[in-house]
């Protein structure tokens, strides 16, 4: 573990070292020694191939991350100082520092511009290498189509003659991450070992009755991964299909009957006649009310032709709507989210034959479809099974420093080095 004791040549190392306790530095030193030994460099540095194999990041994204961690020296040598500086910035820095690192990371071409082609490489790597979802897998979709859906949520406001395509500004990137919280979580934790629960990598287990053809199901794995970005880890275990209009018919009463025994949150998904797919996360049980109800865990989302999530802004408490068998025109029968009566962010009438979607301040969301008036073609509802909350942390982002680095300790236990500094 002499690497941790060698005289630092980079002043950033001294500053970065102060972000860690001595025990944490020793654990990082043990991690470095293990990978450097595998690199066959007399334990002096980590090679690109060992780095990419350990973190399971190959191709442009793995190469770019290695480049950033080595401070873009292009010498193909990752030192202990590099590891400490990168960990301190990427995992323990301020929000701005972390997002700046992420912004540089998605510039996979390294030309100082983040274009659509860069984001395409990132999203393909996420699905293929990190989430390991295959195109042919049941419950998956064409990666090309899915990648475009995520790219369609991005804004490219930079026009520069030095760049062959329109590019993102830093503000564009932050807005993209805000609408795609799962992408943001995942990009913020790529220096954590992949086999120990990286944030943003969990996909709910989709439980579909055996008598239902999976080809008619709207909720693909990539969609579930996206929707789950605004949820805590214990809400990403099992999602059970409670209602599907192709199987159960477009019936409000059948819908309410099928979901009546589910006490937890639900995910409502709608595909309309224009082919747009969108929906909402209902944190409270769907039951008869004469006014808005729900809590600030509700949100709206888009799935196609672009992917976005819209969480409550705090502008009002008009979150969930479920009116059944009211005779007053002031209480429209049906279900929905946000906005105001007769002008909701999303609303489906009790006949399940029409509805509307307007921009609303409740979620800061736009019209979710091609037009504000919608005709549902398919309606699905999934029951979210809530597991026991993880104590002492929040999706691996908050909590104590040791908790944030438990992934490194897990790896060290595997190689028999975790207790070497205790």
UniProtKB/TrEMBL annotation:
Claim: Protease is one of the keywords in the record: no
PROSITE patterns: EF_HAND_1 (PS00018), EF_HAND_2 (PS50222), TLDC (PS51886)
UniProt KW keywords: Calcium
Name of this protein: TLD domain-containing protein 1 isoform X1
Domain EF-hand residue range list: 94-129
Residue ranges of every copy of the TLDc domain listed in the record: 217-385
Entry's Gene Ontology molecular function annotations: calcium ion binding
UniProt entry tagged with the keyword Calcium: yes
